Amino acid sequence: MVNYVEAATAPLKNTGAIRIYGPEAFDGMRKACQLTARCLDALVPIIEPGVTTEAIDNFVFEFGMDHGALPATLNYRGYTKSSCTSINHVVCHGIPNDKPLKDGDIVNVDVTFILDGWHGDSSRMYPVGNVKRAGIRLMEVTHECLMRGIEVVKPGVRTGAIGEAIQTYAEAQRCSVVRDFCGHGVGALFHDAPNILHYGRASDGPEIREGMIFTIEPMINLGRPHVKVLSDGWTAVTRDRSLTAQYEHTVGVTADGCEIFTLSPAGLDRPGLD
Ligand code: MF3
Ligand code: CO
Ligand code: CO
Fold first, then answer.
1. How far is the CA of 130 from the centre of ligand 3 (A)?
2. Is-above-0.85 flag for pTM?
3. pLDDT of residue 104
4. Where are the domains of the chain?
5. Distance (Å, rounded) from C-alpha 198 to C-alpha 142?
6. 38 CA distance to ligand 3 middle (Å)
7. Each residue of 39-94: pLDDT tens digit?
8. At 91, is the secondary structure helix, strand, or coil?
9. Which of 26, 159, 242, 253 has the maximum number of C-beta atoms within 10 A of its C-beta?
10. DSSP letters along 126-154, please?
11. Is the CB of 192 under 6 A from ligand 1?
12. C-alpha angle 25-64-139 in degrees, rounded to nearest 5
């Protein structure tokens, strides 16, 4: 059974109920999400061969501090960085380190800022130097998956419509959808109900209602969909070591569709793609 609750009066923990947010929350989320988007914009000229993911992470931390925001991942369930940096066959939750990026890498940077209690969660792919055609194509397909998922969001359809749109497109492009991680409710909490699956059927999942806020963040592989988590307890990689990509937006459901809170104010939602 699905439960919907007025976010303003509900307890601040994930009870499985789906929060319905009002206009003040939408204002707060707009601000938090735009800060995250501006940080991801500012990374575009910084990410190039030789730069370490630690340097990227430090930039994210400083950007947050400079704007009165805290990175939500810092000390989240034992995670100690301000961002996730996932390179090539790393699906998600790559931990920033002192290894320099190499020419031809593709890297996802995932940032969540908490501003005035609101969580703005977004990620993009960044090409490092000259990326081979397969990598460019995977990034294009993955961004298109995200946008096709967002396109179907409106009150009355089920969350499964998002998954169906993404899976149908990804598989038509001979790519596969990672099943082990999903999008999530977000807002006053970092990870909240409902789960947003990136595969499945339109008849699956709870009904989408106006005032819901959640992420869509498909992870798409060139090879098989299976992943494993490395011994650090975080880094998820494709089992077949095939290339993988991910983009993430936070959206708020409106009367007739949704608002993408994390859209780039500079039009840099797909760095390196035309
Ligand atoms: N930002 C990620 C997401 O999109 C979550 C990262 S949690 C961490 O949901 F602990 F790995 F950082
Ligand atoms: Co997320
Ligand atoms: Co994220």
1. 26
2. yes
3. 98
4. 22-260
5. 11
6. 15
7. 999 999 999 999 999 999 999 999 999 999 999 999 999 999 999 999 999 999 99
8. strand
9. 159
10. EE-SS--HHHHHHHHHHHHHHHHHHHT--
11. no
12. 85
Ligand 3 ion: nearby residues, β-carbon < 5 Å: 110, 121, 248
Read off the pLDDT of residues 3-40 as tens digits, 9 standing for 90 and up: 999 999 999 999 999 999 999 999 999 999 999 999 99
Does the Cβ of 112 fall within 6 Å of ligand 1?
yes
3-state secondary structure 156-199: CCECHHHHHHHHHHHHHCCCEECCCCCEEECCCCCCEEEEECCC
* d(C-alpha 43, C-alpha 159), whole Å: 32
What is the mean predicted confidence (pLDDT) over 123-145?
A: 99
84 lines ligand 1 (CB under 6 A): yes
Give the pair of three-digit tokens for residue 247. Answer: 């983009």
The CA-atom distances, in angstroms, between 81 and each of 41, 77, 93, 112, 134 are 19, 11, 10, 11, 30
Contacts of 274 (CB under 8 A, 6+ apart): none
Tokens 């991942």 locate to 73
The single-letter DSSP state of residue 233 is S
Judged on CB neighbours under 10 Å (0-12, 13-18, 19+), 96 is buried
Q: Atom 11 (ligand 1): residue with closest C-alpha? A: 93
